[in-house]
Design brief:
The protein is α/β, with parallel strands linked by helices. 24% of the residues lie in helices and 30% in strands. The chain has four helices and seven strands. Strand 3 and strand 4 form a beta hairpin. Helix 1 crosses helix 2. Bound molecules: adenosine-5'-diphosphate and magnesium ion (MG). The site of magnesium ion has 4 residues, from helix 2. The site of magnesium ion (MG) has 4 residues, from helix 2.
């Protein structure tokens, strides 16, 4: 199994570029699970992913009211933020498995998932201080 790719970015733009590059390679049915604290750069990464599938990155925000947002490019990108979710039962109600039907689904705060999702790329972003972020991309990640 390939080891995760680990990159240190030094600007939001670099993190965006990394998300863009990843999204360009993804097939429908893939989950991209984002792990990392508040302000790590998860949404910045998703903005890059939107650009990578050919959607408008400016439409991507931290979903404050809506928990789920949809963007359309060469394929659909579904953006889920679990930050405000109260319980594992509430996550179950979202029907995440079905969302991946024909789409790429990216999930912020994937730490809150009650159980593993098949077909996941795991992205972990760690704030190293200042504008430095350590980003690990594990394309063969499985929680099993
Ligand atoms: P999250 O979604 O993880 O809470 P955001 O993407 O909303 O984080 O915010 C990340 C913040 O960190 C932004 O204000 C961004 O400008 C800043 N930042 C500084 N350096 C970086 C970097 N290397 N990568 C991503 N964001 C960075
Ligand atoms: Mg966010």
């Amino acid at each position: 199994m390939a080891s995760p790719e680990i990159v240190t970015t030094t600007s939001e733009q670099e993190t965006f570029a990394l998300g863009k590059r990843l999204a360009e390679t993804l097939a429908p049915g893939t989950f991209v699970l984002l792990h990392g604290d508040l302000g790590a750069g998860k949404t910045a990464f998703v903005r890059g992913m939107a650009a990578g599938i050919g959607a408008n990155p400016d439409e991507v925000s931290s979903p404050t009211f809506g928990l789920i947002q949809h963007y359309k490019g060469r394929l659909p990108l579904t953006h889920v933020d679990l930050y405000r979710l109260e319980s594992a039962a509430a996550v179950d109600d979202l029907g995440l498995e079905e969302m991946a039907n024909g789409a790429v689904v990216t999930i912020e705060w994937a730490e809150r998932l009650p159980r593993p999702l098949e077909g996941s790329v795991r992205v972990t972003i760690e704030d190293l201080g200042g504008d430095e972020r350590r980003i690990a991309i594990d394309p063969f990640y499985s929680e099993r």
